[in-house]
Amino acid sequence: MITKDAKTIIIADDSEFFRIKLSDVLTEAGHKVRIVKDGAELIKEIRINPNGIDMIFLDLQMPNIDGFGVLEWINDNGLRSKFHILAITGVYDITQVAGRLKELGAEGLITKAFIPEEVVFRVNRILFPHKAAQRGEPRIPVSLPVDFSVGEVSSTGYLLNISETGLFLHARKTLFPGTNLHIRFTLPGSNRLLGIKGVVKWCTQMSGEKSLFGGAGIQFMHPAPDDQKIIRDFVHTELKKMGLEE
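-> structure tokens emitted (246 positions)
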């Protein structure tokens, strides 16, 4: 989840709390981040060097010039295709503004109740679509506690994303490739405790103790059909919620 292909991202939000929160997540994920506190400041940044921006996180409610006003200015000045734009809001529901945002060139909307995994997931899908295509199975960002055991030793961790064939496990201990483990967790919308065997296919350079995104990629090993169906249904339900699947 930590990229080696750093991009320049501007966060435009009048809330210092959310500017810092988003900046910490994106910086931890490997990107270069600049912050501005309203639409007027953002427009000044864009005027200076529109070619030096890869992506903008744009709050829809800001003083002076709001997010919609910024989008209109970008369109009026022929800059629509210069950079990617992801809108953020603490007020609007996606059904209220999705059509207008799409018309103005924004590539999606996330709420301020985001989890770090969702931010990285959305950024990666927009900035690195070729990598998402190479992975095949879509990964869904989540933040769920899990129990896992390696041999007779049990530990706890967090599930950060999941697909039909595997998951990313955030753990304080380093799990090396080739390690077999047994994972137990429950997905939202289901009362069934899933118990799945898996094998570590890769791990980050840092454990979860040192990095927000430290951990290991786990491939499932012959999950029970009922467990597999629960995971499949969850993945497709979440994709629909994010507007990424019909």
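The radius of gyration is 19 Å.
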